[in-house]
Amino acid sequence: MARPGGFEVAEQQQQQVLSRQQERHYRLLAELQALVKALPSACQQRLSYTTLSELALALLDGTVFEIVQGLLEIQHLTEKNLYSQRRQLHSEHRGLKQELFHRHKEAQQCCRPHNLPLLRAAQQREMEAMEQQIREEQRMMDEKIVLELDQKVIDQQSTLEKAGVSGFYITTNPQELTLQMNLLELIRKLQQKEAEAEKTFS
């Protein structure tokens, strides 16, 4: 019994979509395999054919490219913001030191000679206390920066894991982090290639 014509057309269209996706998958996989060759050999060994094939599948519809782009933009904004906070703190500290220096100088000029040694000793203690406070504030700022950047890494891992990108899950293991960084780099390079190819064809 012959099937209705409309159903056959729909099936053919579905077949074409599948074969286009298959072609795209093979192309992405081939490009990933070529890009992996530039990575350190230890990393190449960790990126099996299966992992790369799964990665190519995750990249098929372009959503992951957009996610990675978004994550990198957030990371750059965060880094810029933290850097400017650190610079701001540094400049505040410089201002405080200059202010204290001028205040000390004025006090010394108004001071009677026989009181000078006492005044200088007190000023030295005040300067050391300020230096200590500055060091402490800088240490706290650096800790805050490290924590915020660590949190960004966790956000990235979690987002990419939820998006089904092979190799991504929340971890602090240095080897796994290196592998994930290399995977991100592969996705980014592939995205650039795709964008260039689109420009060529458009």
TrEMBL record:
The name this protein goes by in its record: DGCR6 protein
Q: Which organism is it from?
A: Oreocharis arfaki (tit berrypecker)
Q: Which key words are in the record?
A: Coiled coil
Keyword check for Oxidoreductase: no
Family membership noted in the UniProt record: Belongs to the gonadal family.
InterPro entries reported in the protein's UniProt record: Gonadal
- Which Pfam family name is an example for this entry? DGCR6
Which spans are transmembrane here? none
Chain coiled-coil ranges: 120-147
